[in-house]
Amino acid sequence: MKIVIVGSGGREYSIGLALSSESKVSKIYFYPGNGATCEIGENLDCKNDDEFVSFVIDNDISLVIVGPESPLVDGLADRLRENNILVFGPSKNAARLEASKAFMKEFAKRHNIPTARFLRTSSYDDGCNFIDSLQEPIVVKADGLCAGKGVIIAQSKDEAKSALKDMLDGSSFGDSGRLVVIEEFLDGFELSVFAMCDGEGYIVLPAAQDHKRLLNNDKGPNTGGMGAYAPSPLASSDIIKKVEQNIIIPTLNGMKNEGNPFSGALFCGIMVVNGEPYLLEFNVRFGDPECEVLMPLFESGLLDCFLGCAKGDVRSVKYALREGVCVGVVLASKDYPYKSSKETEISIAKNDNKNTFISFAGVRNDNGKLLASGGRVLVCVGYGQDVLSARNNAYNLVEKIEFSGKQYRNDIAYQAL
Ligand code: AMP
Ligand code: GLY
Q1: What are the helix (H) ranges across 169-325?
Q2: 363-403: per-residue pLDDT in tens?
Q3: What SUPFAM superfamilies does UniProt report for this protein, alphabetically (predicted)?
Q4: To test the ligand 2 pocket, which listed residue (283, 284, 409) has its Cβ within 8 A of the most ligand atoms?
Q5: Residue 269 Cα to ligand 1 middle (Å)
Q6: Ligand 1 pocket, residue 292 CB under 6 Å
Q7: Which among 264, 304, 301 has a CA at the least distance from the CA of 282?
Q8: Ligand 1 pocket member 146 (CB < 6 A)
Q9: Right CATH for 2-91 from 3.40.250.10, 3.40.50.20, 1.10.645.10, 3.40.50.720
Q10: pTM of the full predicted structure?
């Protein structure tokens, strides 16, 4: 069968790489893909979504997997489904779980899903009153999508009020900040828990931990993620059971009962406080770089999981996960995350270690030469029986890849060692 993966990052590359070894997959297209996805399949150069939808209809495509949130929030999955195409990814309405933090928080409240105490408001005065009722630090969030930058953790009430003012008047995040969520700070450890969902049924994948800060020891600015590993030993079976019972099941039931069944990857950003999981955020897609460490953990059945979600019968799918751990180390360009960097050539030394994988992201193919084209360039993934061996494999791969300005963290998976 022919499939299409929508997106251009390391997440989409890793899905493509994992599916390329499935015997049922005859061809993988990427829309738009990157400078390395064209080695696994074919990049589509459709000018816009209209052209893309026509391509899918005319070319006997059996499944479309949508990687990033923005096409989902724009309704791409709905348009494909209206044309009877199987899609992995939620509808525009269901994607509000990520697109609007206010929607997500109100939804959690309606369905008794544990989350930080909050106020949603567009009023500066109401916001200040609520801030005065909280202990520092105080979390102020812009309602809409802000490319991962819309959350301010304020150390004082004055800082929280000034962040609130800048959001409400549009100066920090434009229209995305004219509605805000102010919430209490939860102190614990974070987990990323992913469920592959079909509107009602779901399967839970091993819990991952992301590393959002740029520098070692969780210092420096927030990024899209500088590394990840899974499964995390911090995610006990008790915690995962609580995430399922208290968060995933009520969310799927609530979305269905409200007329917007959720299918696709439900990414639960969790803070565990004294053994209790609280929902920080939902994303309606796989995390990046979490996806890059989850895909290689599938031993079999990955395609069927995607298809089961798209068809509505994921509960009956047979799949197997490998024992062991994957660690992924992001190699970013010199000026990430501040500004774009000059393109530089990537060189990759010979590598016969079967327990390593590269997921390419910010790369461009210049007549066969692979260039680092900015942002997060690629992810070095190592697999091993335990965290230490997976991590050694990942960092051995890091040593084999060079480009000018390469920056990465040395401490990925430190939480598990
Ligand atoms: P979000 O996009 O809502 O996940 O927020 C981004 C990051 O901000 C999270 O990954 C947490 O590290 C942090 N964060 C968000 N909300 C809270 C909260 N209520 N308490 C503590 N940290 C938070
Ligand atoms: N790594 C976090 C995210 O994809 O949002």
Answers
A1: 237-243, 249-257, 290-294, 302-311
A2: 999 998 999 998 999 999 999 999 999 999 999 999 999 99
A3: Glutathione synthetase ATP-binding domain-like, PreATP-grasp domain, Rudiment single hybrid motif
A4: 283
A5: 8
A6: no
A7: 264
A8: no
A9: 3.40.50.20
A10: 0.96
